Amino acid sequence: xxxxxxxxxxxxxxxxxxxxxxxxxxxxxxxxxxxxxxxxxxxxxxxxxxxxxxxxxxxxxxxxxxxxxxxxxxxxxxxxxxxxxxxxxxxxxxxxxxxxxxxxxxxxxxxxxxxxxxxxxxxxxxxxxxxxxxxxxxxxxxxxxxxxxxxxxxxxxxxxxxxxxxxxxxxxxxxxxxxxxxxxxxxxxxxxxxxxxxxxxxxxxxxxxxxxx
Amino acid sequence: xxxxxxxxxxxxxxxxxxxxxxxxxxxxxxxxxxxxxxxxxxxxxxxxxxxxxxxxxxxxxxxxxxxxxxxxxxxxxxxxxxxxxxxxxxxxxxxxxxxxxxxxxxxxxxxxxxxxxxxxxxxxxxxx
Lengths: 213, 128
What we know:
- The structure holds two protein chains of two kinds.
- Chain A has one helix at 70-73, and strands spanning 2-3, 9-13, 18-21, 29-33, 44-48, 53-54, 93-99, 103-104, 108-117, 129-136, 139-140, 142-147, 158-159, 169-179, 187-194, 205-209.
- By secondary structure, chain A is an all-beta fold.
- In chain A, the strands form four sheets. In chain A, strands 8, 10, 11, 13, 15 and 16 form a six-stranded mixed sheet that branches. In chain A, strands 2-3-5-4 form a four-stranded antiparallel sheet, with no helix packed on it.
- In chain A, a hairpin with a 2-residue loop joins strand 10 (129-136) and strand 11.
- Chain A is elongated and about 75 Å long.
- The mean pLDDT of chain A is 87.
- Chain B has five helices and three strands; from the N terminus they run H-H-H-H-H-E-E-E.
- A three-stranded antiparallel sheet of chain B has the order 1-2-3, with no helix packed on it.
- The interface between A and B is medium-sized, with 20 and 21 residues.
């Protein structure tokens, strides 16, 4: 079935795609701005919803590109956490968690992570990738937003490193988390977890909640 | 932070608005002070500088994305048109019109009016 293209100022027109500005917007085709798709452009793009084609020059052709398949459009990402609580592995690191404030008074909370090697090792040690969580009633209610260094935006995990002046210490890292939901509990737990296994690396801190608005 | 402020923040944890931060946010933003103080109370009510930095980013993002400036009414309306809905911070003026037996709420900066049912106190939803 042939349908009318949006018209307006046409930058590119094929049977399955129109790029331009102005013109019409009809329910028979999807029209959106290229900017909304992450393309730095002032133009809009339109493509028919069904196997219809825009009227365009070029004569009758038996075949046309049917558009992008879901496999070409969607990149599936799955983040998996183990439901089984892992036992803390012996990392040989003495961890220290220092909260930025004694109470949770706002939706942001910072914790400084520090650590030192408690057992001597011939080959030194490799600090693990960690994650900070606030938990209320055993449920995680926070998302990490930043860290002094080593913060991974996509996962919220933090890659720690060894201090430059002391190879038995971990460079202190202040991680900030944001509450992801409103909480009614009077206390929350601050957990330091191994990002890979989910094991608790240090004894959790208990922090009073004093959020008033 | 002065000792007295520290004491106030400690004793009235979570209930203290950091008014000293208003000036930081206020620069270049034609936003009522009570709006800034509400946002600062929500995201920056702490004496932890790291948490304050993170909170200030949210406050500034909230203002730039959600506060309707008087000279940007058309931009705001266009945003609602394009996205279907959007959350705004605006001043709402409500008046009762006895002839219609309706309350009319006007979004001062957004520049549109919508009627509400009698005895409805809030919960205005509007769209272009």
